[in-house]
UniProtKB/TrEMBL annotation:
This is Lipoprotein-releasing ABC transporter permease subunit. The keyword Transport applies. Residues 277-410 form the ABC3 transporter permease C-terminal domain. It holds the Pfam family MacB_PCD. It comes from Sphingomonas albertensis. It is found in: Cell membrane.
Length: 417
């Protein structure tokens, strides 16, 4: 909107407090702060929700792959090599890794915990960035087939009271058959590394060991429990693996990450939309403050508007002046809200820790929140949408007061002056 020189001067004067107009300026300032808080709240919440989804996706998919090939009945895939080769030959598949996953029980010093034993080829364990970059103590290099060494999660180590070098026992129901029934196997392993992936359930349950040791523990021979698949595009995993599903039909089934975690990601998507809708109302309320402050400004400046009209100011000039005043308040509030939101996100974990210190409450329990830290991921497209929405709402709020100012009849106002 192009303003003439005198229109810019008048708009600037109306934005600054005049004599006897402190209350109007206070209302306008409150409007600016309200827009700022609304925009900041939207930026913070949407970034945290995006961070939740990104962190969960990276950690869950980074550990479990984009899809897994599981046997139909039975305890494993004896022909896993053939299936893995077929998977690697499928266009769009980047890797096919055999693994064994079995829930068992672990004990140490009289403490017992339910665990999830995962057997992988030692090269796959060391090459997995989700595991390799999260080792807190010990080393994955000392874990070799037949060494009796394993890696366990930090929460599991904490609950068992185990350290690197501790010997923990694993109970397997698959044992030797005797005349009195099946005798469970109890095998002792040495903790060689402790990792913290950042997902509470994984750090509380997972135990990694070479696949050969898992086959021996579970009496599986040379079979694998499943084959983990990674693709070039996780969002198109169904299309990519459809030809493979037709080849292995009858022997195994394919379950992708969307199927295995459907409820979790659907809940996050619904909550994300709901939070955006609810917090958008805050900006709408702030915009009504702009509307009320402009109405008060028009009423206070009625005489000035009438004088300007008699001096030749057009109705279009009056409308442009008040539209610019209201939109400027909204724009300043939007910019301030973006800055405040980014500052909060940068110091988000410190803010959480400070509030916990002041209130004495644990606001971020990993067992409830699933992740160990408050995540954040800012989407530039969403930031632009939020800023545009605040500006559009601010502009719409100025139309009625600007129209009222432009409709002022100078004859009626100045009749008795």
């Amino acid at each position: 909107m192009i303003l003439s020189r005198y229109e810019r001067m008048i708009a600037r004067r109306y934005l600054l407090p005049g004599k006897g107009e402190a209350f109007i300026f206070l209302v306008a300032s409150i409007s600016l702060v309200a827009v700022m808080l609304g925009v900041a709240a939207l930026v913070i919440v949407m970034s945290v929700m995006n961070g939740f989804r990104a962190e969960l996706f990276d950690k869950i998919v980074g550990l479990n792959g984009h899809a897994v090939i599981q046997p139909i009945g039975g305890r494993g895939l004896p022909d896993w090599r053939e299936i893995a080769n077929q998977a690697r030959a499928t266009p769009g598949v980047t890797s096919a890794l055999p693994l064994i996953e079995q829930p068992l029980a672990a004990t140490y010093n009289g403490r017992a915990e339910a665990v999830l034993v995962r057997g992988m080829r030692i090269g796959d364990i060391r090459g997995n960035s989700t595991i390799r970059s999260k080792v807190l103590m010990g080393s994955l290099q000392s874990i070799t087939p037949g060494s009796g060494r394993i890696a366990i999660g930090s929460r599991l180590a904490e609950s068992l009271g185990a350290q690197v070098g501790s010997d923990i026992s694993l109970f397997s129901p698959q044992g030797q058959t005797t005349p009195f029934g099946t005798v469970p196997r109890i095998v002792s392993y040495t903790v060689a590394a402790i990792f913290e992936i950042g997902v509470y359930d994984y750090d509380k349950a997972y135990i990694f060991m070479p696949i050969e040791d898992a086959q021996t523990l579970l009496l599986m021979g040379d079979a694998a429990g499943m084959v983990e698949i990674n693709t070039v595009d996780p969002d198109k995993v169904g299309e990519i693996l459809k030809p493979l599903g037709d080849k292995i039909g009858g022997r195994a089934v394919i379950a992708d990450w969307r199927t295995m975690n459907a409820q979790l990601f659907e809940a996050l998507a619904v909550e994300r939309v709901a939070m955006f809708t609810v917090l958008s109302i805050i900006i709408l309320v702030a915009v009504f403050n702009i509307l009320s402050s402009l109405i008060m400004l028009v009423r206070a400046k009625t005489r000035d508007i009438a004088i300007l009209r008699t001096m030749g100011a057009t109705r279009g000039s009056m409308m442009r002046i008040f539209i610019v005043v209201g939109t400027t308040i909204g724009a300043l509030g939007t910019v301030a809200g973006l800055v405040l939101g980014f500052i909060f996100l940068f110091y988000r974990q410190g803010v959480v820790n400070f509030v916990q210190l002041v209130t004495g409450q644990n606001l971020w329990d990993p067992s409830i929140r699933y992740l160990t830290e408050l995540p954040s991921k800012t989407d530039p497209v969403e930031i632009i949408v939020i800023a545009l929405m605040a500006l559009v709402f601010s502009f719409l709020a100025t139309l009625y007061p600007a129209w009222k100012a432009a409709s002022t009849d100078p004859v009626q106002v100045l009749r008795y002056e």
